Each structure stands twice: as C-alpha cells, then as structure tokens.
Amino acid sequence: xxxxxxxxxxxxxxxxxxxxxxxxxxxxxxxxxxxxxxxxxxxxxxxxxxxxxxxxxxxxxxxxxxxxxxxxxxxxxxxxxxxxxxxxxxxxxxxxxxxxxxxxxxxxxxxxxxxxxxxxxxxxxxxxxxxxxxxxxxxxxxxxxxxxxxxxxxxxxxxxxxxxxxxxxxxxxxxxxxxxxxxxxxxxxxxxxxxxxxxxxxxxxxxxxxxxxxxxxxxxxxxxxxxxxxxxxxxxxxxxxxxxxxxxxxxxxxxxxxxxxxxxxxxxxxxxxxxxxxxxxxxxxxxxxxxxxxxxxxxxxxxxxxxxxxxxxxxxxxxxxxxxxxxxxxxxxxxxxxxxxxxxxxxxxxxxxxxxxxxxxxxxxxxxxxxxxxxxxxxxxxxxxxxxxxxxxxxxxxxxxxxxxxxxxxxxxxxxxxxxxxxxxxx
Length: 427
Ligand SMILES: Cc1cc2nc3c(=O)[nH]c(=O)nc-3n(C[C@H](O)[C@H](O)[C@H](O)COP(=O)(O)OP(=O)(O)OC[C@H]3O[C@@H](n4cnc5c(N)ncnc54)[C@H](O)[C@@H]3O)c2cc1C
What we know:
The chain is an alpha/beta fold. It has helices spanning 11-14, 40-51, 84-91, 93-116, 135-150, 161-167, 187-200, 247-250, 268-274, 315-326, 370-385, 390-396, 406-426, and strands at residues 26-36, 56-59, 75-76, 124-131, 157-159, 175-184, 204-206, 211-214, 220-224, 226-236, 254-263, 280-283, 290-293, 299-306, 335-345, 352-357, 360-364. α2 runs parallel beside α7 (187-200) and α11 (370-385) crosses α12. It binds flavin-adenine dinucleotide.
C-alpha cells in the first residue's frame, strides 16, 4: 500500500490520471440517498442518481476505486458472467436474451461515459477467449452461431489453432473465440473519471470515511467515523469488501482474492509478437488466466486466486508461474508490479442485486464480470429509486442461493468446491 496515494502499489496506481482528494466526512449531513462504497456499483449509482436530480452522498472507506474496481483485469466482456448456452438452460431463451441485452446496454453505457466525461482510460476493443481443452472447441463454435442466430450478435468468430496462435503467442490454446466488440480499459482511471463526473453532477464524495453501521429506519442514519448521514435511501455497494456491515446479504457472496502482475515494458515489437493487438485475452480455465498489453507495452497478467483473508507475501512470485506456463518465452522479463484485489462470487454466478427493505438497495456478486455489470447494476438501482423499476426487477428476481454454512461458515465448503473444479480443470 502506498502511503502517498492510499492505493495499493499497482501498475494502475502508478499510471493513475486525475486523482483527486475528496474530504473525510465529519459532522451531520442530509441527503436523498447515501451510497456506501466507491467502486463501479457505487459510483455508477451515485452518478445516475445525481443526473436524475437527487441529492447524493457517497461514503468510501478508503479512496474511490480502492477495491476491485481499481485493481481488476480491465476486460469488459460481452454478455453476463453466465454464458448464453447455460443461461438458456436456466431461464429459457427470452430471459437469456433480455440479460444479454442488458449487458450490451452496459457496454454501450461505458463507451458513452468515456466519451461524455472525456475519461482517459485507454479504452480498446476486442477480446479473445483461448480454449485450453478440446471439449471447449465445440462450445466456441456453438456460441458464435447461437449469438448470431438468437442474439442479433453476428460479430464473433471461432478461431482454429493457427488463427489463435497468430494473435496470441502461446502454444497452450487449441483454438479461440474472438469478440471484436468487447472492450478493455484502465479500470482505476475509469473509476477516477466516474468519480469526477459524479462530483461534477453534484454528488458529495467522502473518502477515508468507513461506514461502521446504519440504522434500518426510514430515514436511515448512516454512521462513518466522526460523522453521519441521514438519508431517505441507502445503496450498499461494498461487494467483496462488505465485511460484517450487512449480514443480510453477506451470506449470498463468497469473497475471493485474485492477483495480477505487470512486466517491465517489452518494447513495441516484442509486445506485438506476443499479442497481436490491444484486445484482452482470457482462457477457459476454472481459475482463469487473463491478460493484455498496456499502452506502454507491458504484459498485464492475472492468474491465481486464494479463498482466505490475506494475500500471498510475494504476489509477483505467486502469479509469475501462471504467466510462464502460457508464455515460457518471458522467462527473462522482469516483473515490476504485483497486486491483488477482492471480488465476490455468487453460487450460481448471477449478479446479486436487490432491495433489502423499501429504502435499502444493494448490488454485489458479479463473479468476475463486474466492470460492465456492476456499472449497470448501479444504474438500474438509480432507476428503481427514481421510480422505474423494470430493469431492476429483472435482476432482483434472478434466483439466488445462500452459501452453505451462512455468513460465518461459508468458507470451508466453498474452498473444497473450488479445489474440486481446479483439479477437474487440469485433467
Ligand atoms: C484482480 C481482479 C481482477 C478482475 N478482473 C476483472 C475483469 O477483467 N473484468 C471484469 O469485468 N471484472 C473483473 N474483476 C471483478 C470486478 O473488478 C468487480 O466485479 C467490480 O469492480 C466490482 O465493483 P464494486 O463497485 O461492486 O466493488 P468494489 O470495486 O470492490 O468497491 C467496493 C468499495 O466499497 C468500499 N467499502 C467497503 N466497505 C465499506 C464501508 N463499510 N464503508 C464505506 N466503503 C466501504 C471499499 O473500500 C471499495 O472501494 C476483477 C476483480 C479482481 C479483484
């Protein structure tokens, strides 16, 4: 953690643009809505609410974008975390198409926000899914066909081994699925841009203002450090960093730590040899590897996770073997940054968005697909608070499961399940 910036020492923090200091909450404030948490969910909710004329206070325990939003891989995939083929089996075609449409709207909203607020976050197009097992080659072909035929999305292509290898220099991919309309971004800079836009729209942002509790009353009283906010509505947007603030939603998510590294700059020629473009890449493994080139030609690589409190002492050493497995040709390359973040997953990999009581809303559990869906969840929460609950209701009515063991004991069973799938992935 950098004492200078208050952000973890990541490549993103080192290349952050437009960091602003927001004050610490002190004294009593009134607002229409108090948003708790300054990641994509909270920032998007706050900005959309302010644009609809509401008076909003956002309380962030650390800095805006401090959590997963400012540390993540930056791959903005199309669709939901739950694949269309699985979603159709779960809910039928119509609901699956509706959810796909939401994700398309979420991607579009990101493009529009970047443009409208002039956010310098290195937005690029394209994503390749690298198939690491023969059995997923059929999945890639079927997904491409189904998206074109049933989702009005004719853009993807299934790639054979040679075509994949021409784009990404790893021999571990047997084929791929290329989506030219997915996006990549510098996620901390996008978070900082959203925060600036929210502040300019009138949101009062307070940093280093950790909420210790809030009353389940109407209006609610939200307490943070030396101050409090009395608000008609509360939005809980703490996700993997929720802790014990709200046990009523904590049991629905499993916090997971995931890790990234950034190499030294590789130079343009070597970078292009490794990945032939600025698209993002992830593979089909259960514990997914994901990577892309930064604008200064570093490989940003995510791989490896753990399921307990605390990160490995040597994150660079922890992630590097995952990178070398795909790119043994990078053995000579120095790793300049290593960092981790906490996201949350739900048992069925569907987002957990809803309303705990008439004036308390929440969004969490995007299961590794949160750049677009968290931002969209913030928007539909804002819509619901301002009286248009249609899209919010679709999310709120998605099935949810409580992790066995509830809030406190949900880890042991989940860790076993994770290990099972990781081993299954290898064989
Ligand atoms: C390493 C990593 C890689 C990832 N890669 C991708 C990717 O490539 N693509 C993708 O789509 N998704 C990815 N994700 C997931 C994505 O980052 C998250 O789904 C998304 O950022 C969640 O946003 P959020 O606002 O809900 O939560 P967060 O960004 O985690 O924000 C929660 C905020 O709440 C604050 N908070 C917590 N408690 C309190 C309190 N009591 N009072 C006040 N504030 C509080 C925290 O400080 C934090 O800033 C990744 C996640 C990680 C960790």
